[in-house]
């Protein structure tokens, strides 16, 4: 029976065999515990009977339950988990960690279903807590936590711990059924058996829409190429993988290191990486392709030079275009992320982003659009302060934060242009005429219908027409129910 139970809640973007990746956040925390404690992982995304599973793991030896949460749906679902724990074991400590509890520590710790908040990267802080519980020591002296005492929140901050990936033990994959997370990703052009892997932590860039500069203090830490590749090859061999998805925040922060990893992979399997366009301009793309790089996913965010400067992206539109042409000369696919709905964004700014996306698709047959996402005012991000100035209301409770999602349409400046944003939100999934359509390769009628819609939407985008026509409304309905957007 479990001494420690770690829960990864439903995120709201979970489609089995499509977007449910390994729960790397809780596996990282578990890696520091498994040698000395019996650890159980409950992944709410795949376990419809999660409450029953939780109940089965709970026993007199259980020391605590840990819940990982990002801003949004995971909070809502995490509160359900916490309520169940409180019902089954009223005295058991409920420990919350993750991005949101770190960024909104006092409000989170004040909630009655939160006993302790672990701030920052909790691998070692959580281990210290568990040791205190096991040895019946005073856990309140643990650094980097927050808790309630005499009706007030106490924040025990001693300077956050930033773990070094190079010194972390291997992930305890045995705690989950890995086969449930291995499936063909459409992002590789055809279904390939793949799993995610992270070789580094943090991000050195200062993008104002992102909370990473606060979470990681812009400190980037990495595994040595040899360690990363050794662990990756173990994964590939053990689970018969054809591809690896590197989920580093930015894979080529150290370009020489990234290239060294590519050389060590040597084309033995295909791989994917998140990176920046300025990095791609500086790298030998042919060498990367030869060594197995199949796809990159840069976040371009905007086609407006003004917005690009405001969000401190430290890239230019010209770099975007040049890197796209460089990719077009290779077999490497590019999937671009765009963002809309920034505070102060004008209609002209938005049209610049639409036009940039169309130009990139036209000049690179292997370019795709992942989507046009709506800016979400995440706490901790520098742009959050501007959002407040522009009328965004700071959520007054965890429950209100739980209503957030990746497509946050409730900001005042978004509500004014809701029809346009909804149109771009849903039609962007089809605008490249290929990426999403691949999902229905074995359903020819649906595929043919989506191809027809793709041509229609491309024409509308070129004409800057973004009406909520009947077919867009139908697409939105299907997306909401089929893809859990």
Architecture overview:
With 485 residues, the protein is of the alpha/beta class. Among the domains are: 4-148, 3-Layer(aba) Sandwich (Rossmann fold); 182-368, Aldolase class I (TIM Barrel, Alpha-Beta Barrel), CATH 3.20.20. The chain is 39% helix and 15% strand. The chain is built from 20 helices and 17 strands. It has helices spanning 24-31, 50-57, 73-88, 99-103, 105-109, 123-135, 212-215, 225-238, 255-265, 277-282, 285-290, 305-310, 317-328, 347-363, 383-389, 398-401, 412-415, 418-427, 444-462, 470-482, and strands at 4-8, 39-43, 64-68, 94-97, 116-118, 145-149, 152-156, 183-184, 193-197, 200-201, 221-222, 243-246, 270-273, 293-296, 299-301, 333-340, 367-374. The strands form three sheets. Strands 8, 9, 12, 13, 14, 15, 16 and 17 form an eight-stranded mixed β-sheet that branches. Strands 2-1-3-4-5-6-7 form a seven-stranded mixed β-sheet, sandwiched between helices. α14 (347-363) links the parallel β16 and β17 (367-374). The radius of gyration is 23 Å and the shape is globular. The relative contact order is 0.09. The model has no long low-confidence stretch (mean pLDDT 91).
């Amino acid at each position: 029976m479990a001494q420690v139970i770690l829960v990864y809640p439903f995120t709201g973007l979970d489609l089995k065999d499509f977007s449910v990746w390994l729960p790397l956040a809780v596996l990282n925390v578990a890696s520091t515990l498994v040698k000395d404690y019996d650890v159980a992982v409950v992944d709410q995304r795949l376990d419809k009977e999660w409450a029953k599973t939780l109940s089965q793991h709970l026993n007199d030896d259980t020391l605590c339950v840990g819940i990982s949460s990002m801003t949004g749906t995971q909070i809502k679902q995490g509160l359900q988990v916490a309520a169940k724990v409180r019902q089954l074991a009223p005295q058991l400590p409920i420990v919350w960690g993750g991005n949101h509890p770190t960024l909104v520590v006092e409000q989170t710790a004040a909630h009655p279903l939160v006993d302790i908040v672990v701030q920052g990267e909790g691998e070692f802080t959580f281990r210290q807590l568990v040791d205190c519980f096991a040895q019946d020591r005073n856990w309140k002296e643990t650094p980097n936590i927050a808790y309630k005492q005499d009706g007030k929140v106490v924040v025990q901050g001693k300077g956050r711990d930033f773990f070094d990936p190079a010194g972390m033990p291997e992930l305890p994959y045995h705690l989950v059924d890995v086969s449930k997370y291995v499936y063909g990703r459409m992002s590789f052009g055809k279904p390939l058996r793949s799993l995610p892997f992270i070789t580094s932590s943090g991000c050195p860039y200062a993008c104002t829409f992102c909370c990473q500069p606060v979470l990681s203090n812009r400190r980037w830490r990495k595994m040595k190429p040899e360690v990363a590749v050794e662990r990756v090859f173990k994964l590939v061999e053990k689970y018969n993988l054809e591809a690896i998805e590197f989920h580093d925040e930015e894979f080529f922060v150290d370009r020489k290191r990234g290239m060294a990893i590519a050389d060590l992979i040597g084309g033995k399997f295909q791989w994917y990486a998140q990176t920046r366009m300025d990095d791609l301009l500086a790298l030998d793309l042919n060498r990367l392709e030869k060594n197995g790089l199949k796809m990159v996913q840069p976040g371009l965010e905007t086609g407006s030079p003004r917005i690009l400067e405001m969000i401190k992206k430290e890239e230019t539109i010209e770099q975007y275009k040049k890197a796209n042409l460089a990719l077009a000369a290779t077999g490497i696919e590019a999937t671009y992320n765009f963002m809309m709905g920034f505070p102060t964004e004008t209609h002209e700014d938005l049209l610049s982003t639409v036009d940039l996306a169309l130009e990139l698709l036209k000049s690179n047959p292997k370019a795709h659009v992942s989507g046009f996402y709506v800016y979400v005012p995440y706490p901790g991000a520098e742009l959050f302060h501007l959002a407040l100035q522009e009328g965004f209301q700071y959520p007054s409770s965890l429950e209100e934060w739980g209503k957030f999602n990746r497509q946050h349409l409730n900001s005042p400046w978004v509500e004014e242009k809701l029809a346009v944003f909804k149109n771009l939100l849903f039609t962007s999934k089809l605008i490249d005429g290929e990426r999403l359509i691949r999902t229905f390769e074995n359903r020819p009628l649906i595929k043919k219908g989506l191809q027809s819609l793709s041509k229609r939407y491309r024409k509308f985008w070129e004409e800057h027409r973004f009406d909520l026509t009947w077919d867009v409304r139908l697409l939105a309905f299907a997306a909401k129910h089929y893809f859990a957007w």
